[in-house]
Amino acid sequence: MNRYLPLAIVSLAILAFATLLLVIVPGMQIAADGVAPGLKPYTAAEARGRAVYVSMGCLYCHSQQPRDEAQAPDGERGWGRASVAGDYAYDAPHQLGTMRTGPDLMNIGDRLPSQDWQLTHLYQPRAISNWSIMPAYPFLFTLKDKAGPTDVVVKLPPAYAPKTGVIVANQDALDLVSYLQGMKHDYAPPGDGLRDNGYAQIDARQMPQTDAAKAAQ
Fold first, then answer.
1. Considering Cα of 69, then 71, then 75, then 76, what sign does the dihedral take?
2. Residue 69 pLDDT level (bands cut at 50, 70, 90)
3. C-beta separation of 189 from 81 below 8 A
4. What is the pLDDT of residues 31-61, one digit of tens each?
5. Is residue 124 helix, strand or coil?
6. How far apart are CA 48 and CA 42, in angstroms?
7. Which helix (H) or strand (E) holds 168?
8. pTM: predicted TM-score of the whole model, two decimal places
């Protein structure tokens, strides 16, 4: 019985140290880093759209964290520069994601700013790319006999258009597209932006070895 008390104390000390090292200190570093220069707060429509994005679980297939060229060819893919901590200052909870069943969306507003394209893609991705495995979201839209003066009609190819009437976007669809259109992190990152440069440091250490090996040949 007397052995349990030291074991419990050691266990709690390890837990406290891990929490300090992995949660509290990084949180303080990120808080001190602040908002990235050039990052704008979400508009009301973008904030509503972000809530739709979160509720639909889009992060399970899309990431929002372009990586450094030392880690992945995200720049060559057109996904934008590597992200830094300050890019997520207005995100709670963040939507970094880990899966890339679909492309990274951190800068989708730069790549595909068209509202028509985004609405069509949400209603039926196969209307854009017949090989797409993205699910369709018809519940974000309404079939009407005739569009009203303020309705936004979804432009569909004949194969996906209704036989009668028109497909119009609900407010959730419009807000979600506003959120996607607003994802433009085209500003320069801060020079001291927090990010993991481990891969770059490894490359820097290995470079002299590689050059020496070539010289020996």
1. positive
2. confident
3. yes
4. 667 788 889 999 999 999 999 999 999 999 9
5. coil
6. 9
7. strand 166-169
8. 0.80
Summarised one tens digit per residue, pLDDT across range 84-111 is 888 998 999 999 999 999 999 999 999 9
DSSP track, 13-76? HHHHHHHIIIIIHHHHHHHHH-SPTT--PPPHHHHHHHHHHHHTTGGGT-------TTT--TTT
SS3 153: strand
- The count of C-alpha atoms lying within 13 angstroms of the C-alpha of 135, restricted to the half-sphere facing its C-beta, is 10
Which residues are paired to 166 by β-bridges?
144
What is the torsional sign of CA 178, 180, 93, 90? Answer: negative
Q: d(Cα 174, Cα 150) in Å, to the nearest integer?
A: 12
**Rounded distance, CA 67 to CA 104, Å?**
10
53-71 core/surface letters (b: 16 or more CB in 10 A; e: else): beebebbebbbbbbbbeee
Q: How buried is residue 23: exposed, middle or buried, by Cβ count under 10 Å (0-12/13-18/19+)?
A: exposed
Amino acid at 17: F
What type of residue sits at position 117?
Answer: W
Residue type, 134: M
What whole-number distance in Å separates Cα of residue 45 and Cα of residue 202?
43
